[in-house]
Amino acid sequence: MRDSYIRDDPGFIAWQQGRTAEAAARYQPWADLMKKATARGVVVRRARIVSEPLSDYCRFEYDVTGPVNLAGGEEVRWLPRRRASDIALPGNDFWVFDGTHGKFNHFTGDGSSAGPESFEDPRVVKLCVDAFEAVWERATPHEEYRPA
Questions:
Q1: pTM value?
Q2: In this structure, is residue 38 part of a structural domain?
Q3: Residue ranges making up the domain that contains 49
Q4: Full 3-state SS string of 11-76
């Protein structure tokens, strides 16, 4: 949900220098992990809420989504932030697993990781699932999304 994450990420730096293929290659372990999961029938959906025009970091994410996330079997959708104003969203990025538990990803003000936080409280899981489904319903599939 942030417009910028880890600015010293080597993949982001490679992308900034025009080396998109190298940037994508840095995430091959993730793509491989997702391929194994999706081959077992796991559905992996990722929704990105973004400001438009896209920040450099979100443009980087957009450029590597095909060779990394989609190639790994993820489904990815994009939602312009202005279209998310009436959706109740958790305060942090999150993953939900099997609809029963999840992880929040915390970040510092400059986008550095401040560590994950696991959750199992059914109320928190429901908040995250409901928010994700509302975003997913409105969001545009990666293949159709054209950044402003």
A1: 0.94
A2: yes
A3: 10-141
A4: HHHHHHCCCHHHHHHCCHHHHHHHHHHHHCCCCCEEEEEECCCCCHHHHHHHHHHHHHHHCCCCEE
Total number of domains in the chain:
1
CA distance 28 to 75: 17
Does some domain include residue 73? yes
* Measured distance CA(58)–CA(72) in Å, rounded: 19
Examine residue 29 and say whether the peptide bond preceding it is cis (omega within 30 degrees of 0): no
**Are 52 and 148 contacting, i.e. CB atoms less than 8 angstroms apart?**
yes
H helix or E strand, kind and range, residue 130: helix 122-138
Mean pLDDT by 10 residues, the chain (148 residues): 88 95 94 96 97 96 97 98 98 96 95 95 98 99 96
For residues 6 and 112, the answer to whether their CB atoms sit within 8 Å is: yes
Question: Which pair of structure tokens corresponds to residue 82?
Answer: 């202005």
